[in-house]
């Protein structure tokens, strides 16, 4: 029973739990039936995604676009992974796997004259600290060096100033290339990328680090690791609200209140003793199993609006509770986030208990049935090898929907839009 470790449930909460944690709530297996790539359809306890969102989610990009992959020197990509293989496992690894996927994808063309899009594989998040955290300080110089290389060796960048090129920039604040928001805002998007399309995990409305036309993707979460933690299909969802993570970042925010804009601190102070909330800073070995036993999984902002919790919640069929004002969610034109998740304003965190306990059981069940749809789960993952309708294909679908390019992206003779000397002086140093 939820909250047993906290003592006796409050009367209203006890009634809610007795009602909600019945066998009617979907078991974990309905949400992860296809995680192993076996192709089994999770027919039972699923609901078809209605309307255009479902149709877009299941699109096949093959035949709708052609991508030319630049052959860059290995110092921009493969050599970095050889130097530090940990890059393959952190939350920004999508830039590596997207490159590998495209090299063997049916949309790839080796004839650049017929390409709709040009892709430059630059691994900007593979400079890691001892603790395994990416440092983006060299990324602007690295990206600038790669663009100089392709602009001198091929004619295609110079036709559009990068208007028909895309780059994967999965760091906290994407192509602003800084992990602290104030500094990221001050830097802005690297000037040379301001006409290109950015594929990035960061997404927040009206933010200088999210340019119009960017494609927002989920962070990388390892499918194989999730597969290893599946639990029996008849396990009940006996945890009502679940979260593991920091509430205060004392190392980087010693005065408190700035980290997560105070939302996580408010979560802890208001609900640390509430029996409906299973929340802690401890990250147990049973983390994935616990998510499969939970009805709601909290997904609050941290230093950035998003985290892998969003992916994990969807994959394990745990209704994501998104606490991040103005967040732009992955593949928002394809995934019906309003139907599968719950959105809570940061200022309303103190009301979180009443907000979640007031959701009708029929709404909870429908969200669970939608989460159990295999297409929903696949769209959040970067499996190797790739599978139809996975996150790789959703990125390509997003690029295909931006075609045909407008004539305005092509430069007239002598016309230039980008200033190659713009930006901080340090960015101009050779890489």
Structural class call reads alpha/beta
Report the major sheet: 5 strands, parallel
Distance between the termini: 57 Å
H/E topology pattern: HHHEHHEHHEHEEHEHEHEHEHEHHHH
Which regions contain 5 or more consecutive residues with pLDDT less than 50? 1-24, 29-33, 36-43
Instruction: State mean pLDDT (0 to 100 scale).
Output: 89
DSSP helix count? 17
Let me know the number of strands: 10
- What is the 3D shape? globular
**Rg for CA atoms:** 22 Å
Write up what this structure looks like.
The structure is a single chain. The protein has 431 residues and is of the alpha/beta class. Helix content is 29%, strand content 9%. It is built from 17 helices and 10 strands. The protein has helices spanning 11-20, 29-32, 51-57, 78-83, 94-103, 139-153, 156-160, 181-187, 223-227, 263-271, 287-292, 309-315, 337-340, 352-357, 361-371, 374-378, 391-400, and strands spanning 67-69, 117-119, 165-168, 197-200, 215-216, 239-244, 277-280, 294-300, 319-323, 342-343. The chain has a 5-stranded parallel β-sheet with strand order 1-2-3-4-5. It has a 5-stranded parallel β-sheet with strand order 7-6-8-9-10. α12 links the parallel β8 (294-300) and β9. 44% of the residues are buried.
């Amino acid at each position: 029973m939820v909250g047993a470790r906290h003592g006796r449930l409050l009367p209203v909460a006890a009634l809610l739990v007795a009602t909600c944690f019945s066998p009617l709530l979907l078991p974990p297996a309905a949400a992860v039936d296809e995680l192993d790539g076996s192709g089994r359809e999770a027919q039972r306890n699923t609901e078809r995604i209605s309307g255009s969102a479902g149709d877009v989610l299941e699109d096949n990009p093959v035949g709708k676009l052609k991508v030319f992959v630049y052959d860059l020197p290995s110092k921009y990509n493969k050599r970095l992974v050889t130097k530090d293989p940990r890059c393959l496992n952190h939350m920004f690894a999508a830039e590596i796997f997207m490159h590998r996927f495209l090299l063997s994808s049916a949309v790839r063309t080796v004839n650049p004259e017929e390409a709709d899009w040009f892709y430059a594989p630059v691994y900007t998040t593979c400079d890691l600290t001892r603790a395994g955290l990416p440092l983006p300080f060299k990324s602007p110089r690295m990206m600038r060096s790669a663009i100089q290389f392709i602009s001198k060796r091929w004619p295609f960048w110079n036709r559009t100033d990068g208007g028909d090129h895309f780059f994967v920039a999965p760091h906290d604040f994407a192509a602003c290339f800084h992990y602290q928001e104030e500094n990221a805002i001050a830097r802005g998007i690297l000037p040379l990328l301001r006409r290109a399309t950015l594929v990035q995990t960061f997404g927040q409305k009206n933010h200088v680090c999210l340019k119009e036309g960017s494609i927002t993707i989920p962070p990388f979460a390892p499918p194989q690791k999730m597969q290893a933690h599946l639990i029996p299909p008849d396990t009940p969802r006996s945890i009502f609200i679940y979260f593991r993570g920091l509430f205060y970042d004392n190392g980087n925010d010693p005065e408190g209140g700035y980290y997560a804009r105070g939302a996580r601190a408010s979560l802890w102070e208001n609900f640390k003793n509430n029996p409906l909330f299973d929340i802690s800073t401890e990250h147990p070995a049973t983390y994935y199993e616990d998510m499969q036993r939970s009805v709601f999984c909290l997904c609050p902002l941290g230093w950035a609006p998003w985290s892998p919790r969003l992916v994990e919640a969807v994959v394990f069929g745990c209704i994501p509770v998104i606490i991040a004002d103005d967040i732009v969610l992955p593949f928002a034109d394809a995934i019906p986030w309003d139907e599968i998740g719950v959105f809570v304003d940061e200022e309303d965190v103190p009301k979180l208990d009443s907000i979640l306990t007031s959701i009708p059981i029929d709404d909870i069940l429908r969200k669970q049935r939608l989460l159990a749809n295999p297409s929903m789960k696949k769209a959040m993952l970067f499996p190797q090898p790739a599978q139809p309708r996975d996150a790789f294909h959703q990125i390509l679908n997003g690029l295909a929907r931006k075609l045909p390019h407008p004539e305005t992206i092509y430069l007239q003779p002598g016309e230039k839009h980008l200033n190659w000397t713009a930006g901080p002086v340090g960015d101009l140093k050779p890489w």
